Amino acid sequence: MRTTHRSDCVINQTLEVLGDQWTLLVIRDIVFVNRRHFRELLTKSLEGIASNILADRLRKLVEQGIITKSDDPTHKQKAIYSLTEKGIALVPLLLEMAAWGDEYLPTAELCGLARTLKEGGPEMRAEFMNELRKTHLPASG
């Protein structure tokens, strides 16, 4: 994991963690469609992520403390990825990005859960984040 940064700017440092082409899409799939296994993230990605890129991004997200990797109790050869509180805290950022894209990108469409959460307001977003905590954080379940 990188320990030095190009600058002390908080936006720069955030981009160093989240700013590549794939990281937020992996997080999106974990958050909004509950894809928690490598194979699901690989084969069901709308954007067609390569397996080596996915493996690298998952490793980096674990190193950054955004997700955890643990053995899946239902299958000995599978790992399951779970959000940490740090990962759940990205939900408002993802929703703001989605809302911005919905307003300013003419070919983009806000749909499904993202639209529901936008229309549901802060209370619904907070409830959704609490549900993620129950699903992903062992002490919250």
TrEMBL record:
Pfam families: HxlR. SUPFAM superfamilies: Winged helix' DNA-binding domain. This is Helix-turn-helix transcriptional regulator. The keyword ATP-binding does not apply. InterPro entries: HTH_HxlR, WH-like_DNA-bd_sf, WH_DNA-bd_sf. Keywords: DNA-binding, Transcription, Transcription regulation. Residues 9-109 form the HTH hxlR-type domain.
